[in-house]
Structure formats: C-alpha cells, structure tokens
C-alpha cells in the first residue's frame, strides 16, 4: 500500500518536532499526533473494521512511532514513515483478532436483549451512529460555508495552499502579490473559518475550545 | 496587531512549512502551549476537511489523551541506561513486562532508586529468523545424510562379481553354489574342482535368480586375434541381433 499523494507537508517543521521530541519534549510529539491522527485513523479504519479497534490501533501506532522516534532520520517524509507503522500495526491487530476474537462493545450492540442469536464469530463491522455521521457532516458543511463566505482573495489564497498544495512563493506569483500578503491572507482565511467551526465543535464535544 | 495574532500567524505559516529557521524554535514553543495547540488543531482540521471531507468524521475521536497517558509510561526515545553511567551499584535485576507487552525492559534497582533502562527489545522478526536457522540446519543435515548414503552405496545392492579375474578356487566356490545353465549340462557333470578349469563359459545365478553368462577372458583374446571368425562385433556379449554388413560379400548387382 502506498501513501496517498497529499500536498507537500511541512517536512521541515515535522523534522523539527521530531528533534524536539527526541530531546524529551513530549508536547512536540503531541503536535504530530494532532496533525496526523485523522489520516492515520482513516487509514486504519479501512483495514480494521471495528470502530473500537480503530482507536486502539491508532493509539498503538503513535506509541510505536514514539518508541522508534530516535530511528527517524528525516530521509523520508515523517508521514510516510508513520504510514508504514500504521499499516504494520493494523496487520498485527488483524492477526491477533483471528487468533483470539474479542467481543467489543460495538460488536455486542444489539437492540433485542431476548435475541438468543449469538453474534460471536460474525464479522465485526464499523458502528457509525447517526450522531457521529451527522456531526461529521455538520463540520464539513460549516467549513464549506465558511469558505463560500470568504472574500475572493482569501478564498483563492487558502484554496491554492490547502487544495492545490502551492508554496507561498508560487501563490504569490499566481496572485501577483508579495509573499507576506499571501501569508496574511491564508492566516485570515483560517481565522474566519475557525470562527464558524469552533462553536460547532464545542457544541458537539460539550467542552470549550 | 497584538502578539497573540502575530504568534498565530507565525503558527499558520508553520502549518504550511513556511517558517524561517530563525523563528522555528519560538513558533514551536508557542505551538506547544495550550492556546497554540488549539490553533494548531483547528488549522489542520480545516486543511484536512478541505482536502477530504470524510476526514471530518475522524475529528470525533481524539486519541491524544490515550497517547499522552501511554507516553508518560514510556522512556524517552533512545534514552540510555543512566544507572550504569553513574556508577550506581547494580541491585537486583528484575524483568519487567511493559504495559504494551511486546517488549521487556530491565529495571536496575540500585540504592532503592529505580532507574529506567533502555528497553531491550527483540527484533520483530526474531522468531522468524530462528525458524529459518532451524530449517537451514535441517536442510544441510538432510543433504549430508543423502550424500553419505550415496557414498556408501545402497545396502541392498551387491557389487558385481567378476569371476574372470578370479583364480580357480574362488571361481569354484561361486559356481558350486549356482545352478548350471542348460547349455552347460556337460560342465555341471564334472566334479566341482574340475569345472572351473574346463569350460570357459559358466552360468551362475544372478542376484535376481536369472542365469548370468560369464566369459573367460582368454576367449575374448582369441576372438580379438581372429576377427574373421567372430560373428558379432567385439562386444563382451554376443550381439546376435546385429548383422554384419560386409560390402565385400555382396554381389555387384546388390550394391546401391
């Protein structure tokens, strides 16, 4: 399996965070977790179908990466290195499931207590509740709505950066403006989108951002 | 623009890999703060959702608290054994199975102060390597056994017996044990001691009970010296199925 072709990540900042983590700064590694957990979780979810297992395997992936962090030399992209760890961790989890199937809460979820049909041995499937599906849709809609509401120059700058993967210099050339202006526009676009998404996340999670 | 906005803008540039080297450490320090971490989380969520809306679903679960708890129990990446370096007397060495269960770490207890040692971890493919080694040794042993048996020869086979080179006593011992061929009935009526010295063609029983014709080498020498009397090519055994082609004997009309 090869990693998908995302826009060029901030490789220098990833390496800088790895170096800080190797020096004992655990908060630096936490930033890497925040940055890549969604992609890793999606990757693991394609291999391990039980939602409870997905979170465990995702956690295990990051812990394995943390243990082996001193071996990362920066020759490859950090996400490529992390991607391989995730695939191997998911494969191991699947092997463990085959040897000794474990019933998780999501697999035992059933609406009929008197149903004597045992679900043990059946294939575990991802349990996406309507609430989580709705919440995800709300977030995506909020981001898209915020993008639509942006001024043209801000929307164009953040689109060229996030979706097209252009560098600040390339965006400056495309938009015929200084690099500093590109940097400012992208920042303001993110702030505007954050202002619309943050209340939604707070409502969904029940805690203040 | 206040400092907080400036720092968040620098953090935004860090997300895009557009931070200068001189600002890197300061921006990273801000990113690790609580406020900076929130902005970092939000900026990356926006980018992920813009590139792939399905990633919004994966924003529902935060693995960071679990990872943080597990990291607290882990040694620093690449941390060496500090007890030995400080010259602390080695206390009781005990094997501790870590929470993850996939490797063992040695905890040296000296002077009552536990020292976290470097995790001793076997290679991921150590068990596979051991099986490969065992399979290799078994293969070499099998080849050696087969080769040895070939060198010694099969115990069921008997080396071919050539009586022609034997003296009379040995030949008589063998021929006495074998039934005589029908064509040699005359020879079999002779006393045993004289049979080996009379006729040069003696029949003995082979390993499978068949009659094996043995030839006296003196007969071969005689035939070799007089090829005109040989009705067969100079073979060890008469090749009666072969005809002699002799141009000299053919009539002129039969020549091609």
From TrEMBL, chain A:
It comes from the Bacteria. Pfam families: Sigma70_r2, Sigma70_r4_2. Residues 141-192 form the RNA polymerase sigma factor 70 region 4 type domain. Keywords: DNA-binding, Sigma factor, Transcription, Transcription regulation. SUPFAM superfamilies: Sigma2 domain of RNA polymerase sigma factors (SSF88946), Sigma3 and sigma4 domains of RNA polymerase sigma factors (SSF88659). Residues 32-99 form the RNA polymerase sigma-70 region domain. The keyword Amino-acid biosynthesis does not apply. The keyword Transcription regulation applies. InterPro entries: RNA_pol_sigma-70-like, RNA_pol_sigma-70_dom, RNA_pol_sigma70_ECF_CS, RNA_pol_sigma70_r2, RNA_pol_sigma70_r4_t2, RNA_pol_sigma70_RpoE, RNA_pol_sigma_r2, RNA_pol_sigma_r3/r4-like. Belongs to the sigma-70 factor family. ECF subfamily. This is RNA polymerase sigma factor. It comes from Comamonas terrae. The gene is rpoE.
């Amino acid at each position: 399996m090869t990693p998908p072709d995302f826009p060029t990540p901030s490789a220098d900042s990833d390496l800088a965070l790895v170096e800080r983590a190797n020096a004992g700064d655990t908060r630096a590694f936490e930033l890497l977790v925040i940055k890549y957990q969604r992609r890793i979780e999606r990757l693991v979810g394609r291999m391990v179908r039980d939602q409870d297992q997905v979170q465990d395997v995702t956690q295990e992936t990051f812990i394995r990466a943390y243990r082996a962090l001193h071996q990362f030399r920066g020759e490859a992209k950090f996400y490529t290195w992390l991607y391989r760890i995730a695939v191997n961790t998911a494969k191991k989890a699947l092997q463990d499931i085959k040897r000794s199937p474990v019933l998780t809460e999501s697999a035992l979820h059933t609406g009929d207590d008197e149903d004597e049909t045992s679900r043990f041995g059946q294939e575990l499937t991802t349990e996406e509740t309507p609430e989580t599906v709705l919440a995800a849709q709300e977030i995506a809609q909020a981001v898209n709505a915020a993008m639509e509401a942006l001024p043209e120059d801000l929307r164009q700058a953040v689109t060229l950066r996030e979706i097209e993967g252009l560098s600040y210099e390339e965006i400056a050339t495309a938009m015929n403006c200084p690099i500093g202006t590109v940097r400012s526009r992208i920042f303001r676009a993110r702030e505007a989108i954050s202002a619309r998404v943050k209340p939604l996340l707070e409502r969904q999670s029940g805690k203040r951002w | 623009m206040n400092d907080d906005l400036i720092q968040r803008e620098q953090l935004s540039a860090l997300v895009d890999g557009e931070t200068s080297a001189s600002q890197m450490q300061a921006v990273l320090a801000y990113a690790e703060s609580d406020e900076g971490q929130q902005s970092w989380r939000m900026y990356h969520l926006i980018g992920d959702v813009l590139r792939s809306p399905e990633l919004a679903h994966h924003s529902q679960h935060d693995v960071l608290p679990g990872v943080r708890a597990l990291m607290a129990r882990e040694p620093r990446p690449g941390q060496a054994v500090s007890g030995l370096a400080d010259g602390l007397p080695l206390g009781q060495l005990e094997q501790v199975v870590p929470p993850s269960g996939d490797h063992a770490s040695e905890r040296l207890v000296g002077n009552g102060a536990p020292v976290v040692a470097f995790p001793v971890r076997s290679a991921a493919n150590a068990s596979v390597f051991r099986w490969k080694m065992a399979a290799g040794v078994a293969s070499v042993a099998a080849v050696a056994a087969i080769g040895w048996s070939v060198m010694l020869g099969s115990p069921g086979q008997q080396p071919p017996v050539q009586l022609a080179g034997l003296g009379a006593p040995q030949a008589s011992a063998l021929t006495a044990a074998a039934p005589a061929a029908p064509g040699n009935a005359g020879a079999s009526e002779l006393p045993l001691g004289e049979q080996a010295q009379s006729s040069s063609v003696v029949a003995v029983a082979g390993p499978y009970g068949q009659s094996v014709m043995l030839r006296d080498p003196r007969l071969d020498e005689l035939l070799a010296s007089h090829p005109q009397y040989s009705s067969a090519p100079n073979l060890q055994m008469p090749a009666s199925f072969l005809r002699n082609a002799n141009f000299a004997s053919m009539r002129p009309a039969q020549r091609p």
